[in-house]
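Progress narrative, Year 2. Work on Polyamine aminopropyltransferase from Streptomyces chryseus advanced from sequence curation to structure prediction during this period.
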Amino acid sequence: MVIDSPVSLSVPEAPAALPVRPRTGRFLVLGVVFVCAACGLVYELELVALASYLIGDSVTQASVVLSVMVFAMGIGSLLAKRLRCRAAVGFGLLEAALALVGGGSALVLYATFAWGGGARYALVGFSLTIGVLIGAEIPLLMTLIQRMSLRGERRDTSGDVADLFAADYVGALVGGLAFPFLLLPLLGHLTGSLVTGAVNAVAGGALVLWLFRRELTRRERRLLIVVNAVVLALLTTATALVGDFERAARRAVYGEGVRVAVQTDLQEIVVTGAPGGPLDLFLDGRLRVSGRDEHRYHEALVHPAMRGRHTRVVILGGGDGLAAREVLRYPGVESVTVVELDSAVVELARTDPVLSALNGGAHRDPRLRVDTADAFTWLREQGRLRRPYDVVISDLPDPGITPSTKLYSQEFYGLASRVLADGGRLVVHAGPLATRPRAYWTVEATLRAAGLRTRPYRATGRLSGFTAGPDRASDAVGPPGDWGFVLAARGARPGLGLAADVPRLRSLSPAVLRTGERSAQGARVPGVRPSTLVHPRYTH
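Result:
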């Protein structure tokens, strides 16, 4: 996409020698502008999406990509002045370069992350290069379209500018809609960007080699044919090898024990672990479940909230069935509702033999039902229930991950409190207290701002090390060493303990809870403010 690139309104003296009438030529040029704008925006969105997945903190990554690209587009517009004397061949070479760099950007970015351990510098480099190339398009196209005037004909150059930018902006709209609704779900990140590059190369090369062929020297025609053939050959070869590349990169990231790898519309789901060994479940590259210590997390999350009436329970998130496993161990539980955004996680928890064994076949229990929905939307649609829930368990990704921020807002907890029965309890996974104390205490302050009384506590004893923190931007602080939780209730402050009918636990006891509460209070960060939808306060 091009944003108001500076163009000259002067018409070149010599008209272009075209094989078609000027009006037809103008239409063809505007069509190529449309295609190139769509491709340019796909490159831009691909960088933002892949950077958010690989690096984390989507707001920061989008800001970096967009700001660097817009800056680079201005540079590209200025550099294009040197090519205007040979606008046709310059545009042809420019589009070939853009097709190769833009089309291969996702593949190289992923390779840099998989084998190099980071992708920040590659992200900035591609944003800068693609921005320069996109910025140089419009000045060259403006030169070409103005040269289609008949000799001596007076042209309304402001109309040329309007037509050019209209085609550019409409193409950007189509590219922006095609990326999330067509390219990403059908082709994925890597193949989608490679196919976009091929379309870009064909459109730019065909326009110059056919429409402006009379303006090219024999040497220039030969150069453009060879360059475009090489670019298309490279993109085609890369497309054919994408499957092998993805498998090799996945092994580099997750190790040799990858058993399941699924790309859904929402995230990448990977399950690793040798037969007979512990299972690891990764969502978008972040370790969410480890069979080595998940019981410590889920026992600490679920059982303190079950002290009191627990006939009806709702779990927000937790499609893996592990929190439900702990809830269903209580004979007094009559119904459990799991609200999970990604149905593929639930299907995996039902059908994968290792994960199903780990969750105790929770999804086969007749007391459990699954609602596939966004937790925020689901709570808003519930309103005030005739039969509210005794326990609400928020088993959601850490608040530092940008898409999760709304699920840790004051508005979200206000909605959650509406579905709580009198005397009911809400428990929230609030992220690691050791490495992200401010985010943890922001969760606690936000619960209090929503009118709830709180009991903060933590669980220690991690046996699995995260390869990344809750957001990849936090890699520098190292893997978390604990889990932080907050128990909350309306009215009276909830008691922190275990129910009289608590089943046998592997790691949790009243003494462990008391120690976890004292430890959390000792790490309190004073002066934190609640987080809202319009003012999220979770920082790295």
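The radius of gyration is 28 Å. The chain has three domains: 22-247, 250-283, 292-522.
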